[in-house]
Amino acid sequence: MGAYFFKMLFSLKLNSMKNNYSLNVFRKCADACKACAAYLKNNPEMEFCVRLCRICAARCEQVIMYHETNAAVYENCAEACKSCIEECKKYLNEYCRACVETCSACEEECLHMVE
Fold first, then answer.
1. pLDDT, tens digit, for every residue of 27-80?
2. I want to staple 102 with a disulfide (CB 3.0 to 4.6 A). Which of 6, 29, 45, 95 is the partner?
């Protein structure tokens, strides 16, 4: 049991910097998407964009909560980010621009995690 514990501890130390970076990417994306949805929520013409931002934020938060998870969670997050990017690219407000930027980084990180 002692050897297993030290092997796990060593593995956690090796991955801690990468995990911290990844979790930060997911947090930034979730925060940007929530801010975008909050900014646009009272505009009926932006309802679809708001919905995609909320979905993306929820998927990012799911990854944060269960960051040691299976590939399907990362794939779902990447898909949500891609949809959010495509919709937010249509608009010029600062919230949508921030969403595109953070979702792009998050999508890339998700795809990297499933490799």
1. 999 999 999 999 999 999 999 999 999 999 999 999 988 866 678 899 999 999
2. 29
Query: Number of structural domains, the chain?
Result: 1
Let me know: does 39 contact 93? Beta carbons within 8 Å.
Answer: yes
Q: Which two tokens stand for residue 10?
A: 């060593």
Rounded Cα distance between 60 and 78, Å, is 9
For 36, the domain range is 31-113
Residue 102: inside a domain: yes
Which residue bears the tokens 């050897």? 3
CA angle 78-38-93, nearest 5°? 80
Which CATH number does the domain housing residue 60 bear? 1.20.1270
Residue 45 lies in a domain: yes
- Name the token pair of 71: 């590939």
CA distance 1 to 86: 49
